Amino acid sequence: MDxxxxxxxxxxxxxxxxxxxxxxxxxxxxxxxxxxxxxxxxDEIRLVWFQPxxxxxxxxxxxxxxxxxxLLSVANVTSGMASxxxxxxxxxxxxxxxxxxxxGVSTILSTASTNFVLIVRVxxxxxxxxxxxxxxxxxxxxxxxxxxxxxxxxxxxxxASMIWEPLLYRTCILTSxxxxxxxxxxxxxxxxxxxxxxxxxxxxxxxxxxxSKLVTDLYRDGFLYIFILFWIRVLNMALSAVPDAAYNxxxxxxxxxxxxxxxxxxxxxxxxxxxxxxxMHGHVDALELTLQHEAHVEAAVAGRFPFITVNTVTTEAxx
Length: 319
Hints:
Blueprint: H1 5-14, H2 16-39, H3 41-49, H4 55-78, H5 82-85, H6 92-125, H7 130-161, E1 162-165, E2 171-174, H8 181-205, H9 213-240, H10 252-302, H11 315-318
Antiparallel strand pairs: 1-2
Helix pairs in contact: 2-4, 2-10, 3-10, 4-6, 4-10, 6-7, 6-8, 6-9, 6-10, 7-8, 8-9, 9-10
């Protein structure tokens, strides 16, 4: 292998396209995620911060702001600014190793969070059937465990092949392809495909629920979330199988942003529909009490039946 300066320079110039694309895609994904966070901050405060907390909301907050923090670190390294912001006591080799470990752990936690939301959504569409919940949990644990094994092996390969390039890009680059990385994404794709098919089967099994606008919205949003997540992970799996190491980490950071953006939108949308449904039922209850009160007053004035019992108006009739 030719290790002369000219050969090294030619090899570095050969990956300029993928390095530049990685920088721009990472910056675009981070900008998009921050912009959407600012855009939906009012809804987040109204629907999350000012409401009783639950597990889904905690996962939402952890995932949204944890990924933003992780992507800021990624952008710092991929942009080349890390060479100026790194402490003198930290070598660039240590920076790359620590950085890829942090990214790997964040990716695993993010995957767990998105799988949790996926389970909650499909479970709700099946009217909270315990059997469906058990099936989803077993499928998630199985695929996630397989992914964790391959993820740990891939992370070991990434640490060994990640180096600091100080000449042209001043960033961390891969020198060899991580063979186990595709094994991390494949089980996640299988789990998304499984939940996708469950959603389609449920919609086909009970078409009568399409008459409800609320349920229709839930199906549409849940279907879109699963559909987008499925193709994002298919893309990551496909690129991780490309023999050229320069393309293995080309899109994960951008697709990471899109995944969290979609997840955040879904959680906020569901919380908004839940509150609107609760408000609607509250108005129905108030209307029932008003009708009963008016009936009693009219009966008392007429002097016929002071203790008349009035049938309540059903929720379905009012709606």
